Amino acid sequence: MSNAGLILYFRTIPWKLLFLFFGLFFIGEARATNYYFSSSKGNDSRTAIQAQNPATPWQSLKKLNSFFNNLKPGDSVLLKRGDTFYGSITVSTSGAASLPIVISAYGRGGKPVISGFTTLSSWTDLGNGIYKSNCPECGVTDNMLTINDKPQMIGRYPNRSYLTFESHVSNTSITDNELKNSPNWAGAEVVIRKDRWIIDRNKIKNHSGNTISYTSASAYSAIDGYGYFIQNDPKTLDTLGEWYFEPKNKNVLVYFGSYNPALYIVKTSSIDTLVYLRYCNYITFDGLSFQGANVSAFELIAAGHIALQNCSIDFSGKNAIYGAWSQSSPFFSLTHSIINHTNNNAITLSGDFPNALIKYNTIKNTGLIAGMGENGGNSYEGIDIEGANSIIENNEIDSSGYNALKFTGDSIKIKNNLIKGFTLTKDDGGGIYTWNGSKNATPHHGMQIEGNIILNGIGAGEGTNNQNYLPSEGIYLDDNSSNLKVFANTIANCSHSGIYLHNSHEIQVLNNTTFNNGTQVNISHDNILPTSPTRNVALQHNVFFSSDASSNLLKLSTIANDINLFGIADSNYYARPLDDNYTISTSQSSLLPVEMHNLSKWQSSYQKDIHSKKSPKAIVPYFLKKLIGLNMVNNGSFTNNINGSSSWNSSGSCIASWDGSGKINGGALKVSYTKQTNGSTGVVVPVGKISSGKDYILKYSVTGIKPKGEISAFLRQSNSPYANLSAIKYDSITTKRSDYTVLFSSSATENNASIIFQVNDSYGTFWLDNIELNEASVTITNPKDSIRFEYNATTKDKSIILSETYLGIDSTTYSGKLILKPYSSIILLKNTPLKTSPIQSLNFEGKKKGTTVSLQWETSNAFNTSSFDILKSSDGVQFKKIGQVAANSIALTSSIYTFNDNTFSDGKSYYQIRVVSKDEKNTYSKTIVLPSSENVKLSVTPNPASNKIWVYSNFFQDYRNAVLTLHDIKGSVIKVIPITSSYKSIPIDISNLAKGTYIITLVDGNTICNQKFIKQ
What we know:
Layout: H1 3-11, H2 15-25, H3 27-31, E1 34-37, H4 61-67, E2 76-80, E3 84-86, E4 89-91, E5 101-106, E6 113-115, E7 117-120, E8 124-127, E9 130-134, E10 145-147, E11 150-151, E12 156-157, E13 163-164, E14 167-169, E15 173-175, E16 189-195, E17 198-208, E18 211-215, E19 227-231, E20 243-246, E21 251-255, E22 266-269, E23 271-278, E24 281-286, E25 289-291, E26 293-301, E27 304-309, E28 312-316, E29 319-323, E30 333-335, E31 338-342, E32 347-349, E33 357-359, E34 362-366, E35 383-386, E36 391-393, E37 396-400, E38 405-408, E39 413-415, E40 418-422, E41 429-434, E42 447-450, E43 453-457, E44 472-477, E45 482-487, E46 490-492, E47 497-502, E48 505-510, E49 513-515, E50 519-524, E51 537-540, E52 543-545, E53 552-557, E54 567-570, E55 573-575, E56 584-587, E57 595-597, H5 599-606, E58 613-614, E59 622-628, E60 646-648, E61 654-659, E62 668-673, E63 680-690, E64 695-704, E65 709-717, E66 729-733, E67 738-745, E68 750-760, E69 766-780, E70 787-792, E71 798-808, E72 813-820, E73 824-830, E74 842-849, E75 852-859, ...
């Protein structure tokens, strides 16, 4: 009805009836009442009528609790801004759907504070820097103490790190061989890191010798080799701010050292819970501050339609908001609020909290003090929520001890949150984490993780048996998770994985960007849920990017040889511009070795990612200034033997032997097999001492019997525990010779180090040669000089000024100004020419086949190279260009080039390679000489001979990359002599040969000529 129609309607009603209509219409408004409270100006003896006037407020929360049952739907309780109210609020009645009971603020100033803090004073000096203050208001426990509004760590020994125990008995005791009997820790607490995600605090029953016996309410047992520390004992107090609570006399002991405690404001929590919400509905808290809860600021049990808005919750001894799981508490709402400094979980809504809304909040500094959170796995977390149809959106969650956001339930939407700094106290967790238990658990549906920015998953190795392993994941979909859409998220700088699908299925991973994580996306099926295979995973339109030259972009592992059944993958970008080769790792079972793939091999082997691409631009990984010192490998050319080097595989089927057939350059190390196996072979080449922080250049040659295979190389300890000392670098093996140059940076100093080459046994026989390791002076490329990562974690467009030209991952060019949409990101590669060093090596050689000369050369850094000109001369002085080969200027590993000269004639021909630089600073290769076989002269003197022969050839002075081989009449190779410098003649000792006819052969890859001689 229009306004005019409504007025006309009212004019037709008699005035008495009209008055009655308006009285009934506004009766709800008339019933709503405001009640005022002021701790500074209030008086609890005033009447309820007086308390409705801000000039005559009530004073205390005790009065509010006694009156709460008299509140009606729509009533408001208003606390004076700037005042602090000590105590707790017990909500004992409900509002209504459109008329909630509101607890808010009035007046001017800061938010009214509901406080559980008691300020400590009247300090008694106990000596040794320890002072005591009595707290009669405190309960039986004390979980939070602040000095000048900064939370302090409860006293512990040792102060920061963990001790290590060698053995344990069930869940009752641990034994540390280094622990002394004094001081005796009976009565204190032992905090034990029982697993990556478990830190339990346990009461010490007995301390005898090096064994601590304890009582634990936790179901988790200890793991040998993990860590522990002692806390909650006055004997631990030795660092400023450390404290201890004595429950019997309710004394608080604080270590101040030589400082005067009167100079500090010291507060301790003495109220367990600040707001009790039990069996009530439609309550709103608006514009209030809650500080110093000893246990929880808010406790919810069967409380529906509870709303917190514009509030702050600080210094909670355990949880800021705790919802019990016994009964449903629907439609909980937390908006535009701040939660800071929580010892356990900022928000726990455990059980049935459907339709929750958590939006526009900031949650900071949760669970950062080991030993102060709850026992078990669901602790030290930012948000832990179980609730169908819930929305967690536009929040910032900063600095969480374990999972930043853990969730479970149907149709949950987690959207546009900024999550940074997590798994700081425990790990094997993530920025966003979910889990659905065993195989038979009821699957969830309709869950969505969209548009979140997730940064800096750190990991917490301290107190475990492997401190260098830091399992922190950006988005972690754990056991039996299913029916999730992971869409348009940005995940960066997480120590283990950007996205981790662990025993998960029916997952869509679409349009995400992962940047500089340990592995960009990790999909794993293991024996935790062996009968729940990974299936129906869609991996499409994502950007997987790393500026580290060694990290995996995609890692897949399974116990069932079924990677091809995991799902679909296509139209992704696998970008690792410092080394875009071998970026994908697969492991088909525990019986098979890890296999590395470049994108093309992955596409052909599994028929996935057919339309996916690599980085649009390569980046030079390093520039070599010079090699330092001698080759650290004593026998890397394997001229006569393989002494010092060895091979090993688990089945004992590999054989390392010397091969003098000239497979690469004269002698070589050959690895062959007595039977077909599925493991991997390691070739161990000792190098002696390497030093932490120094750089080393490895050069080696390799060939094999199959056209496709992979070889890895790395530095490792030669003795137990055989720890890796460098990153692992992968290259390919083919039936042709490949020469590689690899940079290693040593992670530790080791007096007895080795180079390890690894090849899968299934590849078969391979050869290694020309192994050199030198300390090197290099300039390592800083990826930040060429790669720019930008994100926008706000609700508004972000303007980014670009002073140079950049390429996007899809090759789009950007310059000037770039507009980044809310909760999105972009990775840019600088598109200006890089200053690059010249080619680091140019191995140039040639072979004559009939009337054709086949030229081959190899480069290990052609980034600044445009092409190669092939030059030829008949006299070695005047050269003429006879051809050109384009350079592979984006290759990050060695590249091999070939050119055939079909104009060879009798006589000598001289060849050079001119390296045409992009900056027009050309360089030249060495000159090689190829004579015709008819002009090569080879003679042996004396002939016959008894002890020594001299081999003469006009060839020796022109060619530097050949070998002489000594054969018996059956063709068996007896000796190989490399020609490494200019000779007129070469002596050969034949004193140990049996009498008979032998052959000297001049070899440069093909036979040039032979000469027989007789041993007398």
